[in-house]
Amino acid sequence: xxxxxxxxxxxxxxxxxxxxxxxxxxxxxxxxxxxxxxxxxxxxxxxxxxxxxxxxxxxxxxxxxxxxxxxxxxxxxxxxxxxxxxxxxxxxxxxxxxxxxxxxxxxxxxxxxxxxxxxxxxxxxxxxxxxxxxxxxxxxxxxxxxxxxxxxxxxxxxxxxxxxxxxxxxxxxxxxxxxxxxxxxxxxxxxxxxxxxxxxxxxxxxxxxxxxxxxxxxxxxxxxxxxxxxxxxx
Length: 234
Ligand SMILES: O=C(O)C(=O)C[C@]1(C(=O)O)C=C[C@@H](O)C=C1
What we know:
By secondary structure, the chain is mainly α. It has a single domain, classed as Chorismate mutase, AroQ class superfamily, eukaryotic (Chorismate Mutase, subunit A), CATH 1.10.590. Helix content is 58%, strand content 0%. It is globular and about 55 Å long. The protein starts with a helix and ends with a helix. The mean pLDDT is 94. Prephenic acid is lined by residues 143, 171-173, 176-177, 180, 218, 221-222, 225. GO terms for molecular function: chorismate mutase activity; L-tyrosine binding; tryptophan binding.
């Protein structure tokens, strides 16, 4: 997912922040019969179509608008039951969307400001970023299941005691986290920095990419893991 996320950020970085896209019930845009932002409206339309293509039947996909989905037109697939059924109740997309709008967009956008001719392009790039972040973060469910299976007595004990500090300690692998951040620095240096970029135009930089992963992506993945484990024995 890492390269997908980096390239999605780069695609978003061609545009300014465009706050109008995220404003709830913006008067200028005046979307009929919809309560929410332009981004939400665009995202709901896409999720409705994708639900009919059975996107959200897949255990590695989590919708942002679960209440709006329609039944798939394609027949159901039988996925191997890797996760505990409780996994379907774990959805961090509201949190991911809020953090994306508040903290990530300012780091990856070209500059602060609106650009009405690009609202559609911005919304499609945002949806790509949100979908890839969501998929990566919710893979925490699979990572948590693998960790549970690797030491069932230990995790059973921790879960029964609701020992969040103990679970956190056991699911954390600082060496892996360090490696990820080092790898991201290298990737951003290669993919994300345009040597001809204007000094007042920000693009995805190693510093920002590392910040996004360190402060948001990895911590929320861990939250998903802990949440899944805490409900694993119910
Ligand atoms: O790879 C793991 O073991 C994970 O749990 C995933 C992840 C991550 O989000 O990348 C989260 C926690 C670990 O400390 C290391 C990495």
